[in-house]
Design goal:
By secondary structure, this protein is of the alpha+beta class. The strands form two sheets. Strands 5, 6, 7, 8 and 9 form a five-stranded antiparallel sheet that branches. A four-stranded antiparallel sheet has the order 2-3-1-4, with helices on one face. The relative contact order is 0.20.
Length: 159
């Protein structure tokens, strides 16, 4: 059965490392659902958070292939342990003077932040898990979503 897996991959922070990791997925025909990369507390190490959909066999193959890459330090399947998962989303929504207060109230309910306002639109920043962000999008959809940008999932193991 296919399900979404969240992998946290610690890698040496060298030029070309991300390309090697992403290339591994594409060469084997595995689609990356989300990808997020940044330095850790040690500038020599980066954390790649990747979500991929597949069954246990696909996950096993991906893990085996990643472990063969010399720059990979550690792989953690965050789907199998208690973890914190977040995504940052910026949403530009069509609005008028009369609907701006409604959108502000929705933003407040979701603990989102208004980061830009113009005569015809409002841009809201929201951080949360997938269900929170999806719920927010469903509520603002009737107003007219102009544009969405997302960071992709970032995650860390609890404790």
């Amino acid at each position: 059965m296919n399900k979404r897996h969240v992998l946290s991959i610690l890698v040496e922070n060298y030029s070309g490392t991300l390309s090697k990791v992403a290339g591994l997925f594409s060469r084997r025909g595995y689609n990356i659902d989300t990808l997020n990369v940044a330095e850790t507390q040690d500038p020599k190490i980066s954390r790649i958070t990747v979500t991929v959909t597949g069954d246990g066999y696909v996950l096993e193959q991906i893990t085996k292939q990643l472990n063969k890459l010399i720059n990979v330090i550690k792989i953690t399947n965050l789907t199998e342990c208690a973890s914190v998962l977040r995504e940052l989303m910026l949403v530009k929504i069509s609005c008028t003077t009369s609907t701006r207060s409604e959108l502000t109230q929705i933003a407040n309910i979701f603990r989102a932040h208004i980061v830009d306002v113009s005569a015809k639109s409002i841009t809201i920043q929201i951080t949360g898990d997938e269900s929170k962000n999806s719920g927010f999008l469903e509520l603002v959809k009737p107003y007219g979503i102009i544009e969405i940008t997302r960071t992709g999932l970032t995650a860390i193991e609890r404790g």
